[in-house]
Amino acid sequence: MKAPVLLLAILLCISGFSQGYNRKNKDAFPQQPRYEKNFWYFDLGGNYTLPLVNKKEIDGTVVADTLYRTQLFQKGKVGAYLQFGRYHIINKYYFFRYWNYGLSYRLLKGRETYKHQLIIANNPIELMTGENTFSDHYLGMHVELNGRNKLTDNTFVSHGFGLNASYAIISKRTYTQSVKGIEEKTQSKIHGYLYYKLGWGIRANKKLLVIPTIEVPIMNLYSWNGARADIPYFKSNYWPLTFSVRFILCQPYRQKTCPPVDAIGVPEGYNEDGSKKSK
Questions:
Q1: What is the SS3 string spanning 74-120?
Q2: Whole-model pTM?
Q3: Please, which residues bridge with residue 81 across strands?
Q4: Which residue, 21, 137, 196, 244, is the most exposed by fewest CB within 10 angstroms?
Q5: What gap in Å lies between CA 248 and CA 205, rounded to an integer?
Q6: What average pLDDT does the chain have?
Q7: Distances (CA, A) of 271 to 35, 238, 276
Q8: What is the pLDDT confidence band of residue 65, given thresholds at 50, 70 and 90?
């Protein structure tokens, strides 16, 4: 787990150093009352199942100078990722700028190859090789709380935490042969986890924000595995990283009530801007 913890620490440091930088710059996020406080967003990208260990050796029965050994080799693969939902602007707190919720789809896949050896007097004799593969199509729900730190008038650092609960609607495993005597802890069809997101945001135009983002799991909730961020497949563990681009659509404010068009001056019960007076 040293590599995931180190990477997450680097991401948090980058986010922290960005705070306070050029705070007098304009906010790239949609401002009220010119824009609606909530509207649609969607993410497009891919997942990569990062192996935590690329090579693993498991020793079995030892008889005199003879040892039965299994060597495991892990390889991650890239899968599709899609997310969409609604966002809600937060105006009262500096650190958090918006929260959002929606649906997500992600494909996790990878493989594990292995080699059985008989070690006699430190001389390996290869007995058999094989390969196991996995693929899970997860459909889930998510909720996030996001902040931003201004860099320029049109750019910012985006950072936040999220919670995802998913179910594998399609799950596939292929085995050349199970490794006898070694416990397998293959990931469940139900997956719930906490994650951290870090991105670089750009105001593309008046109606669109574009945010390239990396998402890293920080804790599995189900299946629980001792507060680890990685997930098990066969006899190996993988850390699923998500690289995506978020598109936030900005909806200009539309006045929902208008005074009569044939009225002279400001009609009774209306302000000069056309809005209704509060009672």
A1: EEECEEEEEEEEEEEECCCCCCEEEEEEEEEEEEEEEEEEEEEEEEE
A2: 0.80
A3: 45, 106
A4: 21
A5: 11
A6: 84
A7: 20, 60, 6
A8: confident
